[in-house]
Write a structure and sequence with these properties.
about 240 residues, mainly beta, Jelly Rolls, five-stranded mixed beta barrel, 15 strands, about 15% helix, disordered C terminus
Length: about 240
Amino acid sequence: MSHPIIEARRQFLQQAMGSAIAVTAGGASMLPALVHALGKIPEQLIPGKSIYDMRGTVFVDGKLASSDTYISANSLVETGSSSYVVFVIGFDAHILRENSRVKFAGKDNLEESLRLATGKLLSVFGARTGGATHTVQTTTATIGIRGTGLYIESEEDVSYACTCYGKVEIASTDDPQSKETIVSVHHDAPRYITKDGKAGGKITSAPMKNHTDEELMLIEQIVGRTPDFTSLKSYSAPRKGY
């Protein structure tokens, strides 16, 4: 008879592997697709280093990036096809997927806002102090956050936002009546924010897609944190070979 903890781990790994395969089918095929249960937990990045991992064509502030490139709180980061970059700015961490463009704004090493002009971005944000906030913008939405995990996709006429955990304020950029406060523990309320639609109705329910708990655990780990949802699962190693 299986031990309950071992059985819980087995069930979670089966679900996680299925989720990773689904992500591959959903457009993130350049990221490692399978979870490795025996993978070493990634270490926190050393001070002064920005990039944890990258593949393909990545530009930072208009210049081709290398593993030693520094990314500031005011940088422009872009990826080409079949490319991605995993990086840290201060106590925030991000995975920018292929064919994406994100512009950050802030002071010193502290992000104050970012705008995802196009593409897909998974982010974890450290808690702000002293009333400081962070604003995320897409083509159709403005999202106010504090400390949270957030996955967004930005297309010309629609955005996708999954509050993986934490609290956010989502608002349509061109319809003040379309706004919503979301408090999420574990991907509880993904949303589409559309350009078209009636007033007050441009934010609608969406499925959880194109990102995984393993990716969230990875980017939290490289800034020295562990997401709260890991207490719900018998799993401690995000993935191997990232």
